[in-house]
Amino acid sequence: MNKKQGQLLSERFEVAFNQVHDALRDIVQINDERFVVLVKIGAKKYQIIETFKKDLEQYARLRNAIVHEKMEVGFYIAEPNAKVVNHIEKIANVLSRPNYALSIASKNVVYFDVQDSILKVTDAIKEYGYSKFPIYKNKKCIGLLTAGSIVKWMAEHMESGHVNLSDIHVSDIMEYEKDRPIEIVDKSINIFEVENIFEKAHKMKRKLEGVIITENGKIDEVPLGMITAWDLIEIDYTVD
User: Fold this and answer.
1) What is the mean pLDDT of each run of 10 residues along the chain (240 residues)?
2) pLDDT score recorded for residue 31
3) ∠ at Cα 120 (187, 140), nearest 5°?
4) Distance CA 174, CA 178 (A)
5) I need a surface site. Which of 2, 13, 54, 88 has the fewest CB within 10 A?
């Protein structure tokens, strides 16, 4: 690598590093703008920052060497290679342009009305493998029905090893359903904002069962997607 190429890579690295720093300020929002602090605090709150934590800490040390240990104009004591520059540029792009939450949500949301037969729900469990279903009454979402509550109802109404579900409706099972907090948000929300919703619920010792995404975030709208805490854990933020 000649001097001109090295200088260009260093400049690209600095630009990307500054973009990451700006994005971290916006995401983490604490009264401390130090890069390493933002990374440390942010990694505890957001899966995306945790994914890049070790890389960002190394890049912070490299950035200090580039900026603070410059020997003369145009000469850096340390210079990043092309692979490092490409990687931090990709991280900057991910952090600066967070995906819409709908991109990780379960799209084919199966939901029911309180008057639906419970057999429709059991068919859905068999077909889709889902265990939680948004329930609507008068076209408004009133909560979630879980497979666990169906099993509980069946256990209490079983006779001689059999249970008759033919005349049972969703409303009958909902009486056995404990309060399962949900949030309804509009489709413009991004992944970081959803993580914040779960984090706030956790701090309040409130177990949030899911975030339902609708067109405008209203309870009387059809669900476009649903996100659970598990969906956030499973996000793959790795970049090549």
Assistant:
1) 65 94 93 96 89 94 78 62 94 87 87 96 93 92 91 88 90 85 91 88 86 94 90 67
2) 94
3) 40
4) 8
5) 2
How far apart are the C-alpha atoms of 234 and 103, rounded to whole Å?
13
Residue position matching structure tokens 């939450």:
101
Q: What is d(CA 213, CA 134) in angstroms, rounded to the nearest whole number?
A: 11
Using a cut of 0.70, tell me whether the model's pTM lies above it: yes
pLDDT of residue 232: 79
**Contact (CB, 8 A) for 207 and 201:** yes
Residue ranges of alpha helices (H) inside the chain are: 3-28, 35-45, 47-68, 82-96, 118-128, 147-157, 170-174, 191-203, 229-233
* H helices present in 29-81, as ranges: 35-45, 47-68
Bridge partners of 185, per DSSP, are: 213
On whether the CB atoms of residues 212 and 223 are closer than 8 A, the answer is yes
Residue 106 CA to residue 49 CA, distance in Å, equals 23
Summary count for the chain: helices (H), strands (E) = 9, 6
Q: Are 188 and 168 in contact (CB under 8 A)?
A: no
Please give the single-letter amino acid code of residue 144.
L
Question: Which is nearest to 227 in space by CA: 47, 39, 52?
Answer: 47
